[in-house]
Amino acid sequence: MTLVTQSAPDFITSAILENGNIIDNFHFKKYISNSKAILFFWPMDFTFVCPSEIIAFNQKYEEFKKRNVKIVGISFDSVFVHAAWQKTKYKNGGIGPIKYVMASDIKRKIQKSYFIEHPNLGMALRASFLIDETGIIRHEIVNDLPYGRNIQEMIRMIDALDFHKKNGEVCPANWTTKKEGIKPTLKGISKYLSKNKII
């Protein structure tokens, strides 16, 4: 089941904030109010693909920030396990200090509300949701457990969201900010296809 075009399910849970403080009443919708957001799930702390993704998001943090995007990551581990993971060195499988919120879904209610729970293992799949300023999900991607996400592709989708909102044009295959969009009319697509190769 996809949640694209629907309001992002809200939740209140425990989380580690950007400053390292732990709180028990992190309110997702309140936190992302009036900004875009990326909500992403990973299966479990202290595993294998997961730290590479969390670090990759952290390395691109400023790219998200300048686009007015807040990042919230979540798994079913407790905030105390999240904190221990942040304090663990890279060479020991740790992730170091993280600049965005890491939330906890111990009861697994949140992953169920987003329909991304693994059917057999009970953990979250590698799911990511792009949410606009009004709280509507505009893009989602869900990977099976062995396959890490492309963080740059998520930034591209944010740029596409902003591009469409700004000028009403739609984004063709392989669109980037350096390429033109399409006016959503028969004349517009005819003009685009006549001028551009789809590569």
Q: In a nutshell, what does this entry contain?
A:
With 199 residues, the protein is α/β, with parallel strands linked by helices.
What would you say this structure looks like, in words?
The mean pLDDT is 96. The protein is 31% helix and 21% strand. A hairpin with a 5-residue loop joins strand 1 (12-16) and strand 2 (22-27). It has seven helices and seven strands. The chain has a seven-stranded mixed beta sheet. The protein is α/β, with parallel strands linked by helices.
Helical content stands at: 25-40%
What's the number of extended β-strand segments? 7
| Neighbour order of strands in the largest sheet | 2-1-5-4-3-6-7
In percent terms, what proportion of residues is strand?
15-25%
Low-pLDDT ranges: none
3D shape = elongated
Mean pLDDT: 96
**Rg calc:** 18 Å
Count of DSSP H/I helices: 7
Q: Cα distance, first to last residue?
A: 30 Å
Helix and strand content put the structural class at: alpha/beta
Instruction: Sketch the topology as an H/E string, one letter per element.
Output: EEHEHHEHEHEEHH
Largest sheet: 7 strands, mixed
